[in-house]
Write a structure and sequence with these properties.
By secondary structure, this protein is mainly α. The protein has one domain: Up-down Bundle (Ferritin), CATH 1.20.1260.10. It is built from five helices and no strands. It is elongated, with a radius of gyration of 17 Å.
């Protein structure tokens, strides 16, 4: 029963990662800051690696890769689109929104990968845990980078635009 639950959750994060492969180029396009554009471009490549790694997890589980729609990720990305629509193009304030939306995505992924890595250890699947822990580490790094970009530049610039 736990294996079925685990498999369903892997299908869920697989859908989420595939969805982000489509979403990240849009976020990069709306970003004003070159640093933010580069961060989104780099994370797109990392996200593609996550898709490939999850396909390896499916293989290790003896299943074909299959998605299960992730309502949470769909909601977070829709909210992010709304934030972008509500801000003026070409402004630092426009970059604040995608950073916030991207960090919501990262936090969802951090909790999901962390939970799945722990669950995979219960039946002794350290091979799967290692794959999931690598993704967890990369999601944490992406979140930290977004925080750095916001704190060192974007938030300051957005504050200046308001004055």
């Amino acid at each position: 029963m736990l294996e079925d639950f685990f498999h369903g959750e892997v299908r869920d994060i697989y859908w989420a990662e595939k969805h982000l492969v489509k979403t990240l180029p849009k976020m990069k396009k709306t970003a004003t800051s070159p640093e933010l554009q580069e961060a989104f471009a780099n994370h797109l490549e990392t996200t593609r690696e996550h898709v490939t790694r999850l396909e390896k997890v499916f293989d290790l589980l003896g299943h074909k890769p299959q998605v299960k729609k992730c309502d949470a990720m769909e909601g977070i990305t829709k909210e992010g689109e709304g934030i972008i629509e509500d801000t003026e193009d070409g402004t630092a304030i426009r970059d604040v929104g995608p950073i916030l939306a991207a960090q919501k995505v990262e936090h969802y992924e951090i909790y999901t990968y962390g939970g799945l890595a722990q669950l995979s250890k219960i039946p002794g699947r350290d091979d799967i845990a290692k794959i999931l822990e690598q993704a967890l580490l990369e999601e944490k790094e992406a979140d930290e980078l977004l925080t750095t970009i916001a704190e060192e530049k974007i938030n300051y610039e957005a504050t200046e635009e308001v004055k």
